[in-house]
Amino acid sequence: MSHTKFTAEQRITRLEDIEAIKQLKAEYARKLDNQFDAEGLASLFVENGLWTIKGVGGEARGQDGIKRHCSNLSQSISWAQHNIHSPIVSISADGCRANATFYLLCLLTMKTSPEASKEEAVVLSGKYADKFVKVDGKWLFEEVSGIIQQSAPWTQGWVQSQLIKESW
What pTM, to 2 d.p., does this model score? Predict the structure, then answer.
């Protein structure tokens, strides 16, 4: 879409919207890295939002489902650092909806199995393709859709422990 179709004010609003979406995704990472802050993470979604992580992760719908899923994740993951980067954001013509893609590199400390007490360092990499909606002037997630392309114990690395070779 050509910038000449928008006034200077509309262009500034679009840039502010793009920045707000990038900030929302950064807040998402911080909530995950804060012991899977269930209340905080759910508050970033619309009431019936969808959170899907394919490969390793699962699916949750609605704020209550997202809270339950966070609680489950915190049982097996004691530490996480979600490094989310390389955003490409597209705002709809009416400025009320958006799509964005991101890359993920995540470091985790997690149990080797749900009943085990032993933990190991794990490296994940993947991609997100998210949908956003603006509600009362605030951007929220309508859908977070991730795909984990690699999940490997730190000691083995991604070459020895390959997960999937899938792209969008």
Answer: 0.89
